[in-house]
Amino acid sequence: MTSATFRIWRGNAKGGEFQDYTTEVSEGMVVLDAVHQVQAEQANDLAVRWNCKAGKCGSCSAEVNGSPKLMCMTRLSSLPLDKPVTIEPMQAFPSIRDLVTDVSWNYQVKKEIQPFSPREPDSADGTWRMEQYDVERVQEFRKCIECFLCQDVCHVLRDHRLHGEFIGPRFFVYSAALEMHPLDTVDRTTELANDHGVGYCNITKCCTKVCPEEITITDNAIIPLKERVVDKMYDPLTKLLRMFRG
Amino acid sequence: MDYESYEHDVLVIGAGGAGLRAAIEASSAGVSVGLVCKSLLGKAHTVMAEGGMAAALANVDDRDDWKVHFADTMRGGQYLNNWRMAELHAQEAPARARELEAWGAVFDRTKDGRILQRNFGGHKYPRLAHVGDRTGLEMIRTLQDHGIHQGIDVHMECTIVELLKDGDRVVGAFGYDRERGRFQLFSARAVVLASGGIGRAFKVTSNSWEYTGDGHALAYRAGADLMDMEFVQFHPTGMVWPPSVRGILVTEGVRGEGGVLRNSNGKRFMFEDIPDLYLSSTADDEEEGWRYTQGDKNSRRPPELLTRDHVARCIVREIKEGRGSPHQGVFLDIAWIKERLPNGAEHIKKKLPSMYHQFKQLAGIDITEEPMEVGPTTHYVMGGIRVDPDSQMSTVPGLFAAGECAAGLHGANRLGGNSLSDLLVFGQRAGQYAASFAKEQGAASINQGRVEEVARQALEPFERGEGNVEGPYQVQFDLQDMMQAQVGIVRTEGDIQKAIDEFPTLRSRADRVGVQGNREYNAGWHTALDLRNLLMVAEAVARSAILRRESRGAHFREDYLQKDAEQGKLNTVVRLDSSGEMQVKQEALPPVRGDLQEIIEDNK
């Protein structure tokens, strides 16, 4: 058995500090295992949010050595253990306690996006027909586990704190999944441009890099949404027509 | 004592598939609905379901219909199922699947553009609507994204510690929000429990921390009957290496796509032991089994797709007899299909993307190149709260239950894919009947004295926390070790009795645990409170298991290897008696309706 040191942020909205915990590590362990071991052995009240421990629920998001990660999918063997491993909460959201942040803003944002509304069924029995080819690009977006790591890394939220004007990568992916759903009938481009701030994204692709589901967020979701906005709102011909229609 | 108060017509406890579906239904019936979830919304255990949702849509094989699905479910449950629930489930699952599509779910498609269905253990025809190997995520997200626009009040990260009664009737619940630790009182005219399972009572499990049997224990303490608690499903394929991921699920879909089980000699051992009930529906050789997985309607299933209880026991046998893999599992090989499919590696990644990533990231194994090591993991509890099959009301008025925490549908063993359909079919029913029950009820009164008492008890671990006392984790670990060893996949009277004898000690240790810190997101405190539920359900499992002196479905007794016809007519019922003791007895199963019995015989 070897041991390693974990420098874990302890505190709440009022403030806090890093605290070092040394614990034994064994083959195959992930960061969440180490946190749980510390919790069970040394700090029973250490706050950490987690559920499935299999990369499927997106609860255990944190920053490990400064990178946004799912703790359950980050193997210790991928980290240098000769110096302390720092573990801190996501920075884009308010702290609740220790590694747990208040992500409720994300739930409010989702509610403001117009929901799915399908076209009339294709067949008399109330069912639809869709080609596998047509559903695949939406299926990519629907892999999202809502870990909010993309929100955490996005500088518009993290550094500029524009939570009121910008919905963030997660909800562009969500909007794209709705907009590109073969059955959906709603047009969300106006609010994407005006209220949801798709223009703030300057395509640095940080979100794509941290996505544990490997969703091509920027290229496949955000850029096509930006194109839709441009097509609808800034296309000269459409603009002209709009002027005539009043 | 300070607490926040909320009032709803219907309070749903649990926000996985069943709870969300119940809340949506109740809300559409025009009553006010509160939805309490222990985690954040959309993170409940449903998210981990992989393989699919069973519904006789007959999109892939038009010979399928509800009758075949009904018969398959009853056979899989070794005829201990509640026949009415199995009937309703088979009949209503297709409508529930189509409804998900109308709410935005994007299932994989057939060539003619309909919902694709895949093969799974115990299902005669390809029946599982799916999205790759992340069907549960698709389902919970669809329900969540639809549900948030239905006017439901969602209480996230809230744990219920006790149900409140007015006379015989359940009229609310008391709990705390996990984030800040503030107490919350919910008054309601009807309460739906949709709290999932009990997997955390065992050491090796595919279940998340939430699965501490809260709903089972809340119902039991409120006086409701539990039923068939001895039937705990051990999924045959969980990860076994490295140690930290032991128990994480490896979907049955791997075998559905052609994956095979081999022992250390490279032998496909599943061909060696095929139960009589399934002899006529199992492939004669490897060739036929392969054709079946590739959709040949004239072929029969490979033995890897026999029911989970049987496959799990065969794996245990191989390991016990020294033919296991290096880390005490067996080999599950999907890479071999490259011999048969020109673009095999790509096919595997496309059909089983989560499995590919899971093994790549957590075990450093490329499943398109090497076999996986797998072994049984505690996965599901067939037993649960005894409910009326039509309305899902428990034996306590005003208290309903749906999904894994309810008993009846699956009998002695659940077929893969029947869980997701269970959540939707009975979630919908529970929501509907809870709403109509709520409409019929007058106002109830909350017993303030009881509220104070529950709150005081909940804080006791803090009062003990200052001294030199045991923390909650060690008690939990010891319980899990004991259940795994004594009441696990292979059981004997002696082992179970040992476990039963341990409960008084574990209970008194649990009653004395102390926690430190304050009430904000305090995992130690949460664990201390959950422990009481975990102990209660574990004891119910053990006491039910000792009573059933036969081997049937998931309940395997080494000292009673055969099925017993008489025991097969009995359910096991657990209830709290008036002196506060756990009472366990066997009661006769309701006889199967004549026309349904004929369906069963026709499909034998």
Q: Strand percentage of chain B, roughly?
A: 15-25%
Per DSSP, the total helix count of chain A is 10
CATH superfamily of the domain at 237-375 in chain B: Succinate dehydrogenase/fumarate reductase flavoprotein, catalytic domain
Q: Approximately how much helix is present in the residues of chain B?
A: 25-40%
Q: What value does the Rg of chain A take, in angstroms? A: 21 Å
Number of distinct beta strands of chain A: 7
The helix fraction of chain A, in percent, is 25-40%
Could you name the CATH class of the domain at 237-375 in chain B?
Alpha Beta
Feature tags:
heterodimer; A: 246 residues; alpha+beta; Ubiquitin-like (UB roll); Fumarate Reductase Iron-sulfur Protein, Chain B, domain 2; 5-stranded mixed β-sheet; 7 strands; elongated; B: 604 residues; Flavocytochrome C3, Chain A, domain 1; Methane Monooxygenase Hydroxylase, Chain G, domain 1; 4-stranded antiparallel β-sheet; 16 helices; 18 strands; 36% helix; 16% strand
Care to describe what's here?
The complex is a heterodimer of chains A (246) and B (604). Chain A contains ten helices and seven strands. With 246 residues, chain A is an alpha+beta fold. A five-stranded mixed β-sheet of chain A has the order 2-1-5-3-4. A two-stranded antiparallel ribbon of chain A has the order 6-7. Chain A is elongated, with a radius of gyration of 21 Å. Chain B has 604 residues and is an alpha+beta fold. Among the domains of chain B are: 139 residues, Succinate dehydrogenase/fumarate reductase flavoprotein, catalytic domain (Flavocytochrome C3, Chain A, domain 1); 106 residues, Fumarate reductase/succinate dehydrogenase flavoprotein-like, C-terminal domain (Methane Monooxygenase Hydroxylase, Chain G, domain 1, Up-down Bundle). Chain B is globular, with a radius of gyration of 23 Å. The interface between A and B is large, with 60 and 69 residues.
